[in-house]
Amino acid sequence: MSTLKVDTILKRTGTGTITVGQSGDTITIPSGATLNSAGTNTLEGINNNPSFIATKTSNQTGVSDNTFTKVTWDNVVSDSNSGFSTSNNRYTIPSGQGGLYQISVSNYMEGASASFNYHQTRLYKNGSFLSPYSIQYNDDGFNTEAYHPCMSLLVSLAEGDYIEVYGRLDVNSGNVTIAGENVFTGFKLL
User: Fold this and answer.
1) CA–CA separation, 175 and 167 (whole Å)
2) Domain for residue 165, yes or no?
3) The domain spanning residue 90 has which CATH number?
């Protein structure tokens, strides 16, 4: 192994591209070193993957009143690392991809009656409520039977962790429908 010690590297003639390494190489910036970039950064090949977008295109009917129910997802719009399962209705963090994720969800629910007491949407991690990731809306006398909350949050996730969405609507009478207008998205932060 050789060490090259220089203060400045310039192209031999004029301006242009200087290549460091070749395909398959790893360029390492050691701990404690700083990569200072005063020029334009294109950072090709760097993105916020893994990422996913799943939607609900049909109603989930017969949902029990005042009961947390897992939201089903029947359409995967985008899934960069094949982590989303419509059979399990969840996103699983792919191998080697643990880190901080931006997770967003919309969860439109409606009741059979003209009003509801409250609506809650919760994020579950590995089958358990991921406190405090919950939103709640109380009807407060607005006399409406539906609510469409959205939430977006940062969650630290490890390889193999899985994320699901649950909703609960407390109506004055009748069953609840989780409408086919919902979106569940996420991506890993750089």
Assistant:
1) 13
2) yes
3) 2.60.120.40
Phi, psi of 105 (to 5 degrees): -150, 145
Q: How is the beta sheet containing 146-147 ordered, strand by strand? A: 60-63, 176-178, 109-111, 146-147
d(CA 51, CA 104): 11
Q: For the chain, what is the domain count?
A: 1
For residue 157, what are its two tokens? 């996730």
In a domain, 108, yes or no: yes
Residue 144, domain extent:
51-188
Instruction: Name residues whose C-beta falls within 8 Å of residue 65's C-beta, 6 or more positions apart in sequence.
Output: 111, 169, 170, 171, 174, 175, 176
pLDDT of residue 30: 80
- The secondary structure of residue 127, as a DSSP letter, is T
Give the tokens for residue 5. 């010690």
| Token pair 């007491």: residue | 117
Confidence of residue 138 (pLDDT cuts 50, 70, 90): low
Of the candidates 100, 93, 107, the one whose C-alpha atom is nearest the C-alpha of residue 55 is 107
